[in-house]
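Milestone 3.1: sequence recovery, worked example.
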């Protein structure tokens, strides 16, 4: 099953994707995580991608698309995959449709997470992530703080702030790009009958965990 996580930054896509992965065994393929791993390891791809990521810009398709194709060709992606952060433009969505069609597959479900904008900015500023690339647990200093300050509950590694979350200009730039380039994907997938919109918000007390539970019930009933 091919599942796509859609929604602006800070809506909890990574959290929902992680829970779906835990329950289904299908890998979470996060383009942002793959880029960050490459940046940390100082690979050529990482150095090139970081020129764009640090400014909150999209990495060009010439770099991003082949990277996704390689990841989807790995053995663990045969039965299912949870795409988190790709596609981010209509061009990438069309490319993904082509890649999947060659494998006799299609996008089965797109989960569109929505959160009020003021809440999103507070969440991004308060987001902390585990520095251990194998763990990658995400926390929120306000809503979901770690038990011990600065330390990951799951693996004990240090928690850090993503470089692109520490800079308000980058946050605003990423949200602007989301509105301009990524939000048209909502109607793209709605017209294909695969869109499921879910509000994740403190105001209505609905968390990513609740959304993941509902989706899993539906997947199990299919
Ligand atoms: P994320 O962790 O999904 O917020 O991604 C972090 C950054 O990686 C984004 O702000 C972009 O610069 C870059 N990135 C991630 N996914 C893509 C994509 N599908 N296309 C282009 N750039 C991407």
């Amino acid at each position: 099953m091919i599942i796509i996580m859609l929604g602006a930054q800070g809506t909890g896509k990574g959290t929902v994707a992680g829970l779906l992965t835990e329950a289904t065994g299908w890998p979470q393929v996060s383009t942002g995580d793959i880029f960050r791993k490459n940046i940390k390891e100082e690979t050529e791809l990482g150095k090139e991608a970081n020129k764009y990521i640090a400014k909150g810009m999209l990495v060009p398709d010439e770099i991003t698309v082949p990277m996704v194709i390689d990841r989807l060709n790995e053995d663990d992606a045969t039965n299912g995959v949870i795409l988190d952060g790709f596609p981010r433009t209509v061009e990438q969505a069309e490319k993904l449709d082509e890649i999947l069609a060659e494998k006799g597959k299609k996008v089965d479900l797109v989960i569109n997470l929505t959160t009020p904008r003021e809440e999103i900015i507070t969440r991004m500023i308060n987001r902390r992530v585990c520095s251990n690339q194998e763990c990658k647990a995400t926390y929120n200093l306000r809503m979901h703080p770690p038990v011990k300050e600065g330390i990951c509950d799951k693996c004990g590694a240090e928690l850090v702030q993503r470089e692109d979350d520490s800079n308000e200009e980058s946050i605003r730039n990423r949200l602007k790009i989301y509105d301009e380039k990524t939000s048209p994907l909502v109607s793209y997938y709605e017209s294909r009958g695969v869109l499921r919109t879910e509000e994740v918000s403190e105001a209505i007390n609905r968390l990513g965990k609740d959304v993941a539970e509902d989706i899993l019930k539906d997947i199990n009933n299919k």
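The longest helix spans residues 168-182. Residues 9, 31-32, 35, 52-53, 56-59, 64, 85-86, 88, 92, 164, 174 surround adenosine monophosphate (CB under 6 Å).
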